[in-house]
Amino acid sequence: MTFEDLAKTIDARKTADPDSSWTAKLLAMGPEKCAEKFGEESIEAIIEAIKGDTDALTSEAADVLYHLLVMLASRDVTLDSVLAELARRQGQSGIAEKAARSN
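Above: the chain sequence. Below: its structure as tokens.
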């Protein structure tokens, strides 16, 4: 499964029955709950990175990516728009990009 496939599946779950899909249930709880779950999974990934458990980090990273896409979907932000933003930044130094944002 590609990242794009996962984003499409999540988008399709927006209209699914929350009793039949974890994604639909999360989305039905609203953007705040989706953001909270993303934060929880991010913290779990950070913990595994610090511990050095690469298998657990891999698993948590998958959870982070999934919950990021759910959070984006909850606010109708598409993966394509995020990828377009990354493409816009490509070839630009991270330091220069950050400096441009602060102006």
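The first helix runs from residue 3 to 12.
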